[in-house]
Amino acid sequence: MWNYIIQLTGALRTIHTQGLACHTLDPTKILLIDNKARIRVNCCGIHDVLNFDPNVANPLASMPQYQQEDLVNLGKLMVALACNSVLALQRDNIQTALELINRSYSRDLAMLVVCLLTSQRIKSINDVMPMIGARFYTALETATQRADTYESEISKEIHNGRLFRLLTKLNTIVDRPQLHLDSSWSETGDRYMLKLFRDYVFHQVTDDGRPWLDLAHIVSVLNKLDAGSSDKICLMSHDEQNILVTSYAELKRCFERSFNEILQAASSHKTALS
């Protein structure tokens, strides 16, 4: 309950400090997101657009009145939340709803609702802040933890995207049927080393011939290639007749040269067509 109140208060404060009003602070205009942990105020500004009068000399003159209406609507919204029903906002039910809030919730919450509905002690959104008190710290801590979680997940996706681009380029090189009408292009020079590297990453087998699957190995090796590490790597052909010892730095140079060659071939083809 307090989490929603704090979020609504913060949203109103952002709007009011810009000299504007919400106009649409109603239970039907509140969106619940993020497993109902976050709220969004919908349709803000619709009232200003639909009721705009170009003949009014100063359209902001009535803004303090509209902001006061926002505070009253905030109180009504709190009543609906506390009673879990919009029927509590009806004139015949409001007194019963206030009595229910007094019995079921803290004195701070009941006092805040009464002050909002009757405009007592609360003349602006800033007057709401002291009545919420230290509960802001709990909301701030929750928001910080949520931000840390999102940042951690986004960081993973950044690395996933980097490795995806690397694999995409590698697959445009390895086993390419031909380039410049050369059908052996992918089997010679830099491309042959990259083909052996592809097998080293994805096609390893155990001593008894079973596929060896290790995601940590795949990610580690691809990161070393992307970074151009000086670590050595031993590459072996399928028939075990060819063994190459090289570094990830050299493989990266082979990788970049081969991909740039494909880019140049693609660019020259576009130029010829144009």
From TrEMBL:
<dbReference type="GO" id="GO:0005524">
    <property type="term" value="F:ATP binding"/>
</dbReference>
<dbReference type="InterPro" id="IPR041332">
    <property type="entry name" value="Pan3_CK"/>
</dbReference>
<keyword id="KW-0547">Nucleotide-binding</keyword>
<keyword id="KW-0175">Coiled coil</keyword>
<keyword id="KW-0067">ATP-binding</keyword>
<keyword id="KW-0963">Cytoplasm</keyword>
<dbReference type="GO" id="GO:0000289">
    <property type="term" value="P:nuclear-transcribed mRNA poly(A) tail shortening"/>
</dbReference>
<dbReference type="GO" id="GO:0000932">
    <property type="term" value="C:P-body"/>
</dbReference>
<dbReference type="GO" id="GO:0008143">
    <property type="term" value="F:poly(A) binding"/>
</dbReference>
<keyword id="KW-0507">mRNA processing</keyword>
<dbReference type="GO" id="GO:0031251">
    <property type="term" value="C:PAN complex"/>
</dbReference>
<dbReference type="Pfam" id="PF18101">
    <property type="entry name" value="Pan3_CK"/>
</dbReference>
<dbReference type="GO" id="GO:0006397">
    <property type="term" value="P:mRNA processing"/>
</dbReference>
<protein>
    <recommendedName>
        <fullName>Pan3 C-terminal knob domain-containing protein</fullName>
    </recommendedName>
</protein>
<dbReference type="InterPro" id="IPR030844">
    <property type="entry name" value="PAN3"/>
</dbReference>
<feature type="domain" description="Pan3 C-terminal knob">
    <location>
        <begin position="125"/>
        <end position="262"/>
    </location>
</feature>
